[in-house]
Amino acid sequence: MTDYAIGDIQGCYDRLRDVLARVSFSPSRDRLWVAGDLINRGPSSLETLRYIESLGSSAVVVLGNHDLHLLAVALGGHPPRRKDTLADILEAPDHDRLVAWLRQQNLCVRDRTRNLVMVHAGVPHIWSAGQAEAYAREVEAIIRGDDAGEYFTHMYGNEPHCWDENLRGMDRWRVITNYFTRMRFIAQDGTLELATKEAAASAPNGYKPWFEYSREDDVRVVFGHWAALEGQTGSNQFIGLDTGCVWGGLLTMMNLDTGEKIHCDC
Ligand SMILES: Nc1ncnc2c1ncn2[C@@H]1O[C@H](COP(=O)(O)OP(=O)(O)OP(=O)(O)OP(=O)(O)OC[C@H]2O[C@@H](n3cnc4c(N)ncnc43)[C@H](O)[C@@H]2O)[C@@H](O)[C@H]1O
């Protein structure tokens, strides 16, 4: 069995199948770890979602900001955005099943044997791997539960800007969601800066890319989300897999044991 992790697919179904074909991926033998943003902006979100759902236990998935956006449209009454390419999912006859499946996915997956976690955007240096796991479980329970509609109605927004263990309710869930699915630049005290989306060198004053802070543990973090990084973090501990497929870059998949990367032009 081989475990492969893949960055933001964003509905680029044909490229997904191309890169899987390069390693003769077989769901009966191998597993695909998906670092979030399965859908949106690309041409074939419905096919992508159906395919990954069909993999069953051969897919290990974390939710990205675009996946949460679909859930917010489906469950929280949010209007679709102009650049969304989600209509095929929203109108599909199996829409309810796909949304129900998406709600069961995690924000953070931890593999203790490999000493790694997979998240969409990152794990802030102010949290241990254990804390990250615990905070993810809190929000995952909300997304799966009866209060999901309420959560998705109030999920959007940049505040609170900083983690505080005393936060409760929606403020707590929103800031946890933002660390896991939207973070790029962060200050030493954990304050998030969510407006800047360019490369690591464009850090606003007082902020750095989240992976440039040293962590107290040595857990490896597999993540996507930040296309402008082009997969470059300067560290083997932080493995960026979003190489901008939907922006005409590459789709990148990595063998989780050997570290070998397989790329596909988009
Ligand atoms: N709590 C919450 N609050 C608010 N919204 C929430 C939310 N939770 C979920 N959302 C949702 O999040 C979604 C995205 O929000 P947006 O804010 O609209 O999207 P984005 O930053 O473009 O994010 P993306 O995830 O696509 O990032 P990427 O690095 O690929 O792309 C970023 C930029 O990098 C650029 N880029 C790509 N490759 C590059 C390269 N090689 N060099 C330089 N720039 C590059 C791209 O052109 C692009 O402009 C929306 O649907 C929104 O609803």
UniProtKB/TrEMBL annotation:
- EC? 3.6.1.41
Q: Which UniProt key words apply to this protein?
A: Hydrolase
Gene Ontology MF annotations: bis(5'-nucleosyl)-tetraphosphatase (symmetrical) activity
Asked if the record carries the keyword Hydrolase, the reply is yes
The record's section on InterPro entries has: ApaH (IPR004617), Calcineurin-like_PHP (IPR004843), Metallo-depent_PP-like (IPR029052)
The Calcineurin-like phosphoesterase domain extends over: 5-145
Q: Has keyword Lipid metabolism?
A: no
Record's catalysed reaction(s): P(1),P(4)-bis(5'-adenosyl) tetraphosphate + H2O = 2 ADP + 2 H(+)
Q: Which domain of life is it from?
A: Bacteria
Q: Which Pfam families match?
A: Metallophos (PF00149)
**Alphabetized CDD domains for the sequence:** MPP_ApaH
Name the enzyme's class: hydrolase
Stated role: Hydrolyzes diadenosine 5',5'''-P1,P4-tetraphosphate to yield ADP.
**What protein family is recorded?**
Belongs to the Ap4A hydrolase family.
Q: What is this protein called?
A: bis(5'-nucleosyl)-tetraphosphatase (symmetrical)
Q: What is the lineage of its organism?
A: Bacteria, Pseudomonadati, Pseudomonadota, Gammaproteobacteria, Pseudomonadales
